[in-house]
C-alpha cells in the first residue's frame, strides 16, 4: 500500500471539530449540548441574498471569470468605497471562501521554508493553510493579561529573519475578539516597511465591533500599498458561511497577476455563492444594527458570566464574536472532552474549543478555551451556569488564582 | 516591494484563456468568433438541479460537513451502485470542483519532488495543480498516429524511479477524447501493483462515450483498491460547471482521513452547489440520451470537417467532447492568435486552444490544436469552413503531408 504524504501527516485535525464524536455521544444520551465551539452564526442570512439565488434564471450554470464575476467585484469595490478604501475590481480575486483566498496569497508570495509571523492564539486553520502551502508559521505570544493586544515591536523584531516574508493579523481577531487600534496597525506598517514584508490582514469580522469602537483597516495604512494583502469574506458579515465566497485584495499588481494564475487553474469560484454575495451587499443597514446589538448583548452575557465564575476570567473584547477565557483547569482538551463525556447539569452540557489548538507554541493554551457567542442570550446564560457548575466538580481543577490578582486584570 | 514566490512565477497561464484579449479585439471589430477553445458546454443544466436551488428554504446558509453533505455523498454512493462500483459515503470527499479534489489528492499522497506520470497531451491545469502542490509531472508521450492510445508499458517503466508516486489518467481524455479500454486499464493496474503506486483516475467525462463503447472505470479494477483515487465532478455530466462540485473517492482509509484534514481546514464545499448536485442525480435518463446523440453528431461534424481539410487530420475519439487535430502549421500558438488578430472569413473566425499548452515536453504540440465541440452542429460546420479557408492563406503554413500518409492513419 503506497504511503501518504509528510504534510498529510503533519496536517492538524480541526481543534474545533475533533470533539464532535463526544458531542454526538452526549446527545444520544438525551443531553442538551450548547455549541460554544463553532463560528457558525445562528443569525439569519439577509433575505435579499437568499432571494437572489431563488430567482437565478440562467439555463446553464456556467463557469464565471476565474477572478470572480465582474459585477460582484464591482459591487465589492463599491462596498470598500463606503469604508474609504479605494479598491478597483481588478485588484480583487474571489475564492471559495477566505480560506481559498488566503491559500492563493500564501502560494503567491511565499516559498517553501519562508516564514509568516502570526500573533498567537490565532485562527487554527492558518496552521493547515501553512502546511498546505509548505511554509512555516512563527508565532508571537499575545497575552490574555493585556486582552491579547498586539505584542511589542521587540517581539516581532526578535523573530524576523532572512526567511520572514509576511506578518498575518486577524482584525478583529478570531479567537480572541481583540480589535487592533489604528496605532497598533501603524506599528505593523512601520515593521513591514522597514523589513520589506507583506502584511496579510484577515478582516472578515470587520463589521462586528462594539463599545463605539471603529474598525481601522490595513488598507487605510499609507505608504505600504504594495505590501498589504487583505483577506475578506461574506461568510460572517452576512451569516452566509455556506456560500463559500471570500476574496483577496491587493494594490500590488504582481501579487494579483500571480494569484490569478492559481485561480485560473481551478477555473472559477462558485456561481450561486457569487450571486448571493453580490446581492447581499444590498442588505438594509438596519440588519447590521440589529445584529450588532444582538452580539453586544451576547458578548456581555458571556464576559459577565465568565468573570463571575471563581478562578475564571476573560477580557472584554471589542470585536468579532469570540472570547478566549482563562479557566482553572489542568488541560483544556481534557476539560472540553470531559464536559461532553463525563458531566451534565440539569441534563445539559457545553461544547467549547480548547485554546491549545489556537497556539502554535506547544503547551500554550492549556488553561484557556475559546467561546463563540453565536447562540441566543438565554442559551448563553444557561451555558454559563453549566460551565460554573462543571468547574465546581471537574477533577482536573487547579488552584484558583487569588481574587486580587484577577481584579488587577 | 517584497517579491512573489518561485512557484507563482512558475505557474503557467491558462493556454485556453490566454488568447481571450485577442478574441475580445476580434469581437470589437464586429467579427463572429466561434469558441472551440473552452470546455463549457452549451447544453442546458437539468431543470431538476436548477429548481432544487430555487426551492432552497433554509434561513441560514450554513457550513456543511467538511467532506460534503451526507445526503449528497449518499446520493453519489447510489449513483456509483448503478455503475457497479461499490463506494460508501465515507469514502468520498467533496470539493469545490474536481480541481480542489485533485489538489486534496496530490497534497495527501505526494511530497515535494515526488513525481506523477501523466500521458501527454494532458489537461493543462494538471500542471498548475502540480506546481501548487510542489510536485513534479513526468509526461509520457501518447501519439496522434494511434489516436492517443495508452503509451506502451516500457515507456512507463522507463520513467518510473524512486520518486514516482502515482500515475494519473483522464478517461475519457481531455484533450484527446480518447477512451481507454479495459485492457489498457489492466495494464495500469499491473503497473501500480508492481511498483506500489497510486492510480489517480479523472473520470469526469464518464458519461460521454460514443460508437457503442462503454466506459470502464479504474474503480472496476480488482486487487488495487488501496491504490486507486477517483476524481469526479458534476460539471460536465450535468452541464453545471459553475456549481463547483467535484469529489475524490478512495477505498484507502488513510488517504481519505488525510484528505479530510485538508478539507476541514477550508471548512466546507459550496452549499448551493451541493444542493444542485444532489438533485442533479435525479435527472431523467432521456436527458443523457439526447445529450449523447447531440455530442455524437457534433463529434462527427468536427472529425469529418478536419479530415476533409488538406494537410489536416484528427483521430475519431470515442469519448468526452474534445479532439486534438494535426494542422499544417508552424506554431499553434501563433496560428490561434493569427486567427483572431489577422484573419476572417465572411466576417467570422474561430478560437481554438493551441495544443502546446497540453504538453509538458517543450516543443510538443506545435502542429496540433484542441477543439471542443461544445457548439451547435450548424456553428461547428461554419467553424470548419472558416478553418479550411484560414489554412489556405495562413502565412506559417507548412508543407502538406502526402495524402497517402494520411490515409494510413
Write the SSE topology:
Two copies of one chain form a homodimer.
Chain A: H1 6-10, H2 20-28, E1 32-35, H3 47-54, H4 70-81, E2 92-96, H5 97-109, E3 115-120, H6 125-133, E4 136-141, H7 153-159, E5 164-170, H8 182-195, E6 198-202, E7 228-233, E8 245-249, H9 253-265, H10 271-280, H11 285-308, E9 322-326, H12 332-341, E10 348-351, E11 353-354, E12 368-372, H13 377-393, H14 403-408
Parallel strand pairs in A: 1-10, 3-4, 3-5, 5-6, 6-7
Antiparallel strand pairs in A: 2-8, 7-8, 9-12, 11-12
Helix pairs in contact in A: 3-10, 4-10, 5-6, 5-9, 11-13
Give a nutshell description of this structure.
2 copies of one chain form a homodimer. Chain A is α/β, with parallel strands linked by helices and 409 residues long.
Task: Quickly list its features.
15% strand, homodimer, 409 residues, Aspartate Aminotransferase, domain 2, Aspartate Aminotransferase, domain 1, 2 domains, seven-stranded mixed sheet, alpha/beta, 12 strands
Descriptive account of the structure:
Two copies of one chain form a homodimer. Chain A is α/β, with parallel strands linked by helices. Chain A has two domains: 6-44 and 286-408, Aspartate Aminotransferase, domain 1, CATH 3.90.1150.10; 47-280, Aspartate Aminotransferase, domain 2, CATH 3.40.640. Helices cover 38% and strands 15% of the residues of chain A. Chain A contains 14 helices and twelve strands. Chain A has helices spanning 6-10, 20-28, 47-54, 70-81, 97-109, 125-133, 153-159, 182-195, 253-265, 271-280, 285-308, 332-341, 377-393, 403-408; strands at 32-35, 92-96, 115-120, 136-141, 164-170, 198-202, 228-233, 245-249, 322-326, 348-351, 353-354, 368-372. In chain A, helix 8 links the parallel strand 5 and strand 6. The longest helix of chain A has 24 residues, at 285-308. Chain A is globular and about 60 Å long. Mean pLDDT of chain A is 95; it is low at 402-409. At the A-B interface, helix 1, helix 3, helix 5, helix 6 and helix 9 of A face helix 1, helix 3, helix 5, helix 6 and helix 9 of B.
